[in-house]
Specification:
Chain lengths: ~80, ~80, ~80, ~80, ~80
Amino acid sequence: MISGRVIGRYWATKRIDTLPQGALLHVRLDDGGHLVALDPLGCGEGEHVLITQGSVAAGYFQTVKAPVDALIIGSLDEQPPSK
Amino acid sequence: MISGRVIGRYWATKRIDTLPQGALLHVRLDDGGHLVALDPLGCGEGEHVLITQGSVAAGYFQTVKAPVDALIIGSLDEQPPSK
Amino acid sequence: MISGRVIGRYWATKRIDTLPQGALLHVRLDDGGHLVALDPLGCGEGEHVLITQGSVAAGYFQTVKAPVDALIIGSLDEQPPSK
Amino acid sequence: MISGRVIGRYWATKRIDTLPQGALLHVRLDDGGHLVALDPLGCGEGEHVLITQGSVAAGYFQTVKAPVDALIIGSLDEQPPSK
Amino acid sequence: MISGRVIGRYWATKRIDTLPQGALLHVRLDDGGHLVALDPLGCGEGEHVLITQGSVAAGYFQTVKAPVDALIIGSLDEQPPSK
């Protein structure tokens, strides 16, 4: 997986029917570059997120045909959990 | 997903039979580099588009065998929707 | 998909059995870098070709097990078709 | 596969339900760049590890839906085995 | 596919059970960068090899679960075959 910070959100009124509902977040990757990732977790701007890519991302959706190749699967804790 | 601007169109008269009909758009990616993406939405030059890649792109087509690894799945709104 | 120019051909006498027959073309990608792509279309040196990658490329072959992750799916027309 | 050194660990309290238990290790790749990989082997900081990516990584988990695209599959021996 | 030269071999005594037997070769790619590829062909150091990546590589193995995303599928002939 790769990590990055949410820096904004996109809207796409004109879209293919099989694109699932959910926020299309604009993420700046920690190693450079950007992605647009589907967010099922309700993340906000500035949040540090974990992203999975490829067919693995599409597998999250019930519809096999979801055309999603980047999915936010977690929000990274800023500090390790206290024991 | 990745985003980019449509900068042109390609034609391929000599092609394999299983390549679906549809425009082969030349896209300049926002992070640099280029892709050729199948466009089911009728996007035009200059449009800011969202692209999904890999087997997820091929899954859009009814034929399982569509040899398409880059698909335009949305046109990004230039402004967020007004509320 | 990505585009590039055919710059040569490779032979591999020592190969795994499931590699399909067909030319292994050496392609210089338009964005830089190189690939070796299986060519079912009979393309020649200097030809501008369109390449699909990943499991989508393997899906072209009848054998599910074809170990091919780069396939030439079209030859790009040097000019748009006249109307 | 690609290789790298474990340099830390991430926690994600807020995560999607289908993300399997297991350490999310922060790996600096030998060629540069970083990944976050699921670790089923109990690797520690500084360990030199081998990582597989994509749907192949997800295939390790019993649940078909595991949203994991980077998995540590081995720890590289610092020296070849003595004969 | 991509090409490269074998520059060494890795051993991984600590590994997941589903990693198939076979040499884990260290390959320097012709375009730069490195990979670790499973070698079913018995290639040696200095050999110029062809590598397939992703789920296509895993498909070579009888076990569907083989966590292999890079496979040597051929050794490139230094010269074209004489006719």
